[in-house]
Design a protein that fits this description.
This protein is an alpha+beta fold and 295 residues long. It has one domain (13-289): 4-Layer Sandwich (Glutamine Phosphoribosylpyrophosphate, subunit 1, domain 1). The protein contains eight helices and twelve strands. The chain has an eight-stranded mixed β-sheet. Strands 7-8-9-10 form a four-stranded antiparallel β-sheet. The protein is globular, with a radius of gyration of 18 Å.
């Protein structure tokens, strides 16, 4: 259903997190140019990064948890409120595609662990035996020597590809996919697969996506905060700033973590803000630095 706030003809837009958003955006724009939906676009864009993420924070080539296992989370959502999410899945090359299948083929919103993997097999998706890439295993074994858990700002903290797209029909969708924090406790799930935390879209208002230290976003439902700020009349930029202010207010020592926030409304206006310097984002095929709260 086309958003009532959107014009009959809308210029497609794609917004995503971090430098790896550039190849994701290019793919999403290609999908939109062929007449694909916003949901098609964000799914296809995220899949690009799941296959090849140089930062080792998305997909099966990621850094593992402290038990040496790569566990993955993903979510999709559209402006009509329909959503699908998967968490703590292993061996699934494209968790974002599995999340879409949860949305499209089940009465549920969130499937986790072995149950989500079983659903993947039922849908014909290959579930591979758990394995680490040689580089990931080498880094993990080096970490085991000290077992010191200290995520690095703008490295392990930029643990997602999150995307928003607005298509020519005026429909909006969001998606996110991640391996979560490196060397996390086995079983840890962050904000990315939680609707209202990592992603949120609500027609006819807009959408928001987050990246960074998921615990801080979970405690505040960051994406929902930003969308509700837009509902109250804030611009997307003002909404991002308001959500980051709430996150900092509820999570002490902001110098120790990073959260980046992006938002888009149904008129195509966008916003970007972060706790610290270093959060990059992509609008279309252009890379930008988000303004930081801490200077």
């Amino acid at each position: 259903m086309t958003s009532p706030a959107a014009a009959a003809s809308t210029t497609p837009l794609v917004l995503s997190t971090w430098n790896h958003g550039l190849p994701a955006n290019r793919k999403a724009i290609e999908v939109l140019a062929r007449g694909g939906s916003a949901l098609d676009a964000v799914e296809a864009g995220c899949m690009v990064v799941e296959l090849d993420c140089p930062d080792m924070t998305v997909g099966l080539g990621s850094r593992p948890d402290r038990e040496g296992r790569v566990t993955l989370d993903a979510a999709v959502m559209t402006g009509d409120g329909r959503a699908g999410c998967v968490a703590f899945v292993q061996g699934v090359a494209h968790p974002v595609a599995l999340a879409r299948l949860v949305r499209d083929r089940t009465p549920h919103v969130l499937l986790v662990g072995a149950g989500a993997e079983q659903f993947a097999r039922e849908c014909g998706i290959e579930v591979r035996p758990p394995a680490l890439t040689p580089k990931a295993e080498e880094e993990w074994r080096a970490w085991l020597a000290e077992r010191r858990y200290a995520p690095k700002i703008n490295i392990e903290n930029h643990d997602t590809i999150s995307m928003l797209a607005l298509d020519a029909r005026g429909e909006m969708a969001a998606a996110s996919t991640t391996s979560g924090l490196a060397y996390k406790m086995h079983g840890r799930v962050g904000d990315s697969p939680i609707i209202g935390a990592g992603i949120f879209v609500d027609a006819p208002v807009g959408g928001a996506i987050c990246t960074g230290l998921g615990e801080t976003v979970l405690r505040t439902l960051g994406a929902h905060l930003a969308v509700e700020a837009m509902r109250a009349g804030a611009t997307p930029q003002q909404a991002c700033e308001a959500a980051i202010e709430r996150i900092v207010a509820r999570n002490p020592n902001p110098e120790s973590y990073q959260v980046g926030m992006l938002a888009m409304d149904f008129t195509g206006r966008t916003g970007a803000f972060a706790v610290q310097r270093g959060f990059t984002y992509c609008l279309g095929t252009d890379l930008h630095d988000a303004p930081p709260r801490l200077r």
